[in-house]
Sequence to fold (1209 residues):
Amino acid sequence: FCAEGEDLRFYWDEGLKLDSADKNFRLRIGGRIQADWAAIAASDGLDSALEAGGQEPIEGFGTEFRRMRINFQGDIYRDVFFKAQIDFAPAFEEGGAVEPKDVYVGYHTGTDLGDVMLGQYFAPFSLEAMTSSNYITFMERSIGIDVMAPSRRMGASLFNGAGERLTWQAGAFSTSEGEPDYDNEDNWFAAGRMTFLPWLEDDGERLAHVGASYAHQFVSGDNEIRYRARPEAHLAPSRLVDTDTLDADGSDLAGLEAALVLGPLSFQAEYVGNWVHRDDGAGDDLYLQSYYAFVSWFLTGEHRVYKSGVFSRVSPNNNFSPQGGMGAWELAVRWSSLDLNSQDVRGGKLQDVTAGVNWYLNPNTRVMLNYVHAMVTDRDSDGVVIDDRESADIVQMRFQVDW
Amino acid sequence: FCAEGEDLRFYWDEGLKLDSADKNFRLRIGGRIQADWAAIAASDGLDSALEAGGQEPIEGFGTEFRRMRINFQGDIYRDVFFKAQIDFAPAFEEGGAVEPKDVYVGYHTGTDLGDVMLGQYFAPFSLEAMTSSNYITFMERSIGIDVMAPSRRMGASLFNGAGERLTWQAGAFSTSEGEPDYDNEDNWFAAGRMTFLPWLEDDGERLAHVGASYAHQFVSGDNEIRYRARPEAHLAPSRLVDTDTLDADGSDLAGLEAALVLGPLSFQAEYVGNWVHRDDGAGDDLYLQSYYAFVSWFLTGEHRVYKSGVFSRVSPNNNFSPQGGMGAWELAVRWSSLDLNSQDVRGGKLQDVTAGVNWYLNPNTRVMLNYVHAMVTDRDSDGVVIDDRESADIVQMRFQVDW
Amino acid sequence: FCAEGEDLRFYWDEGLKLDSADKNFRLRIGGRIQADWAAIAASDGLDSALEAGGQEPIEGFGTEFRRMRINFQGDIYRDVFFKAQIDFAPAFEEGGAVEPKDVYVGYHTGTDLGDVMLGQYFAPFSLEAMTSSNYITFMERSIGIDVMAPSRRMGASLFNGAGERLTWQAGAFSTSEGEPDYDNEDNWFAAGRMTFLPWLEDDGERLAHVGASYAHQFVSGDNEIRYRARPEAHLAPSRLVDTDTLDADGSDLAGLEAALVLGPLSFQAEYVGNWVHRDDGAGDDLYLQSYYAFVSWFLTGEHRVYKSGVFSRVSPNNNFSPQGGMGAWELAVRWSSLDLNSQDVRGGKLQDVTAGVNWYLNPNTRVMLNYVHAMVTDRDSDGVVIDDRESADIVQMRFQVDW
Fold:
């Protein structure tokens, strides 16, 4: 086939890329470093309620690498593709170990079936869950999405993202990665997501996106379900809401999503409803729900970039340089809500307001500043009792280089 | 020497390669993703015997990354070579961690001494053990080789693989990697292997290979030897045969190997005999043995590729593509046997029949389907008692991209 | 900015490098493999004293990968820089895991402020500590530097290394990496270092270097400080001196350093003094001190290479080759001392003499042979009592490929 080998062009185009002249071989060497600092404080009532439940108070100053990933991916022989991505950040912690993230092989069928994907990756569910952590607007995904979406799992799926306006993906997924918020490792998911652009103008500078996701979780035997959430700060030492373990044989998750890009101004919102089917005698079925909505505005005129059903990399109109460019500046505010109260379960209700400033020095460097105000009410679980509104405040920064 | 630097040509030739014009610098960036699925069932008698011994029954459906490796290797300044290879697959498991695999430095002496190699790599023993997992004909190496060959160890050796027909390697090896089937970490091996091609025609399309290996294991102090084996399926939860720990001060391993390539048809077989020298008072010395033989046939006309004493990468005559190419298709059947019964030890006897279909989409992509029928007899060890023949059946698939 | 991408030149210049034509993008793919062997023996009195304290005797023969690192680093968009470096060597050990090493992002301000660096890296302190393990003259850094210098920590600093003769760096650092010799994880450091070349001739072939470092360690709450040291051999199983845990609320470290390069002959020396401020009632404040001095001589005429305040890579005048070149040969002798006795604390006094031979086959390959004679006196801590001089002898080798 290529006995003498096929020359590869090595270049930088917002990342490290290698292509053969006929584009049959296209390889990418990528990575991301996200260094975080956070200062955290809480109302006295919240700290004492957490401590009464044997948990750490939400206080302190911390620093961590949120992600430190290397990935190698590519298309070879035109139709075969693969990705191998490793996160080294968990290895910084005492006793921590490296975590494989996206690891899969696949085949571009070139038909309406789209791509066959086998391995570990995000089960198709939710716009914010499936948008890369390099490109999300705030430092953390909203509480509801983070807790309820199936996240990365080992599975098989079909993905068709080639249509100009339509994408869909559906598959079956098993073992979950790392340390999920679900306590059970042996659950299965059937999951699917479909997105559509009813409006698309100016090469994506103006668009309206709508989408829907559905997932059924099969829980077998003694396995249990548990939902719990930190405020939108990974350095926060404790979870503020928690259903505790629920004896259940499954759950149905439904998600609705919408986004609107009007040049530098954009809006995004999602709703996730979750029907938890409890085991006989374990109580009535639950309905848990969450949603978020945010608005973002680029002061410097850029717009959020949409690509195959998710948001992608923003490139400043002028890169930052001491000689004059100021990069891209984005302001954003999000309201998010997670309600873990249903029937007899009082996991609590968490509402976060997040204000963010993002400074994109160039396409591959971003500094983020987030202020999060988290409000908890109506929790009585795992020894933590909160009646009136208690709150936590977090100021956090991220220095990100990704390529 | 090269103050301004030496330009490297970056190209794809069945893998990612970089060469300087004078070939003094030759670098390779490699990797492999092997995603496995398996369905496993056993006879009632086998499951109950295992459970009586406190082990998990051989039942279920599972999925795992068998290997997820990245490696960087090369020759620099013409004579110095090195390899650094890491396996991330074990990190997918709860509590699992990354495992370094081949990691060594060496020097091409350019004399009859061949290459000096220092570091961790496969101690020279057995054709199947030393053939890369990318190129083995079945999803797993045969039971006897997997259990008895010394595998990767830290050591020093001389390797001469430059002869057209003759290769030899000999060295001394200490600490073993990861979790070997040997219980003791502090054993030493002296090991050597020699191979020869009595017949070689048509540029390797027809050849006969013979080889012999010998290893002496030094076991010190309180250390013990233990041999145990799964059926030829890594996802199987339990070992079917097991000597339990043996008080021994050493063992002698001898291996004989042969292979015959007749164009698309090929045959391969090995025998390993193992004299275990038990400590005084621990019982008479043991003689354990294993062998396998297999036949492989490429329906599409390719042939197995031989290189310096082992088998290597197969390239389809026509890569698979929706426009017509069907890739390479290989059928293969293997019989393998491991006998862990000798003197008073009743570790059991395991015999596996494996039928395999391999589909090579292109030189770097392979889909494997294996059916394994494993038969255990005559075991009474570690609480597991099996008299009559009990059996397990496994259907397993692998999706492999390696480069 | 570079919609079509910017071509990168891929070349080998004592390492793997990629540059864009305008030098705005400069990337490096680096790594190091250090394979060590050591034989260790001790006086009977030392072994019995260690065993009386419940520690392993200093005896045996061992092998390990001291370091097995991969790193990816670069400058992008001219002013932004980053480095991601992982050490896989600790994963070779049972239960060991990968350790991230230098991981940071930064910005070249182009002003007198120098570079802003955020992430994990060596806190600025000591010439030997900040010289890469690829380039240090002996297999291990001297005992005092290894134990007292703050080493790698998560922090923020300013670094100005652009001056021809002057460098300075200062910053604040928190959580320490991996398993430090300090027992406490929650201490903080403010650290700074300044270096100057009073004499610089012949493009660095002759120079005099002086420098000073200062660090204040803040120790909070119940945290403790502990200093302890192996002889200068990482494979030695026990520490020879040990203060045991000290209740302290901080310490002040001051370091002085000097080096003189006279062509092939060079000298280097450092002194570190350490005032440990103990908690009220825990005893009087301590003054611990250490120093080393060494001389190195290149038989083959090369000289040690100085770069921005540290020593760097040596390139042989003639690379080793069977056709005649013999590489570079270096002889070196070091005297080092660590005194952990002060007030009521009898951690012991350790003095090492190390003789070394280094053979540089080419700029990226080095074989090191070290003989270490370690002498302990006057220790009474952690159950180990040594009055008269006891000693250990170590012969160790390293095979190193780094690029």
Notes: Residues 8-402 of chain C form a domain with the Porin fold (CATH 2.40.160.10). Confidence is low (pLDDT under 50) at residues 177-185 of chain C. Chain C is about 5% helix and 60% strand.
